[in-house]
Amino acid sequence: MLSSSLRMWLSWCSILWLAQSSFQASVLGERSLTALSNDAMAKLLTTPDPVKNIDPRNPSSHLSKILIPRAPDTQNNTFVRNYLISTLKGLNWHVETDEFEADTPVGRKKFANVIATKDPDAPRRLILSAHFDSKYFPSYPMNQVRLLHAVIQYSLTCLQFVGATDSAAPCAMMLDAAEALNPLLEARMKRIKNGSQLDDEDEDVGDLTLQLVFFDGEEAFKDWTDTDSIYGARHLAEKWDTTYISPHTKRRLMNDVTTELAAIEHLILLDLLGAKQPLIRSSFIDTAWMFDHMVAVEERLGTNGAFAYDEEQSMAPGKWTSYFVKRNKDIFHMGGIGDDHLPFLNRGVSILHIIANPFPRVWHSSKDDATALDIPTMRRWNLILRVFLAEYFELEPKGSKSRSLNDPEEEEADRYVARSVSELSL
Ligand SMILES: *[C@@H]1O[C@H](CO)[C@@H](O)[C@H](O)[C@H]1NC(C)=O
Ligand SMILES: *[C@@H]1O[C@H](CO)[C@@H](O)[C@H](O)[C@H]1NC(C)=O
Ligand SMILES: [Zn+2]
């Protein structure tokens, strides 16, 4: 059931959208994004329950499965990797792993990135990514027997670094987005394969698919250097840069796309998310429009009351504050923060980096566990990502904006909206 206030803002959104759409410029790969229909939006916000997948209180949530110590080349890392693989295979995604070995300051280690693609035949991909490994902390020397007991106690209580914001929560949010968008993505694939999706205007988005990349080995084993960090991202970027797409595969080809790397439209990297009130900054000019659209999605959802959750009223309309630092149109924070995006950025891939800056206070401490996570915050991220991605992929066919015209509540809502909009335009 939709509350009447929810319905009201949904109408409000579609009208605001009409007002805005004429301002959309087409520069730097920027394109206009169409707001979802009311029905699709309402369904997307509630299905699946936006808390279900990121609930640390529920031992079978996606988050709980990931939220264990999972440094590279350990059984737990393999457990999490297999969990990601089986979850996405269960949603009928094409899943592959990129497995390799590399020398680290603590010896040779095995790594495996997980790559899940909704439509492997699509010539271009939007990547949503995060790292799934947790930081390795060395154990203490075990040769002194009298210390053994203390060390074991210490290890059990303090050295169980689980990297809740870094980046278990972002990985769980990615699985949430995959689950929420899956029916819409499948319907879209059917339309594309049937040839009924594409009119001229839609052609650019029609040949695009969503890909999830879970990087292994993001963390340094000792101190962060160029060679001791982002093992998985460095390996995958180099591999894709030298993997030529064969014209003989059944994949639909575009002329300018020659390598797997060149087929990446944008790479969105999530990191250090899940703690209360993060601050996100736009780092790259070519994705400033995507940043702005994410801000606009947040604004629409917040104004409507979609962020208020349970007893928590700090996110109610009029009370919530944005997670995004308003972009100064003249200043771009070029370069940004060292992370998995760098080897892609250096090869020309367009990056949207969604990372809390400043870092969460618990960063790289044993306190980065479930207690660092805020459920209303993670729920809000899920809603923002669901709506942002659905609009990015135009997951609704044109002309499906269905609304019953004779619903008195809705007519009242429309009058209210018309009034608000005319007031706004004064
Ligand atoms: C592996 O994960 C479990 C929780 O599922 C944890 O109790 C255990 O300590 C972890 N093992 C290592 C070596 O970190
Ligand atoms: C393709 O789409 C058209 C129009 O929606 C529909 O009538 C037709 O049955 C579809 N064909 C297939 C093979 O799905
Ligand atoms: Zn880290």
TrEMBL record:
Transmembrane annotation, as ranges: none
GO-annotated biological processes: proteolysis
InterPro entries, A to Z: M28_QC, Peptidase_M28, QC/QCL
GO molecular function annotations of the record: glutaminyl-peptide cyclotransferase activity; peptidase activity; zinc ion binding
Annotated segments matching region Disordered: 397-426
EC number: 3.4.-.-
The family this protein is said to belong to: Belongs to the peptidase M28 family.
Name assigned to this protein: Peptide hydrolase
UniProt source species: Coprinopsis marcescibilis (Agaric fungus)
Organism phylogeny: Eukaryota, Fungi, Dikarya, Basidiomycota, Agaricomycotina
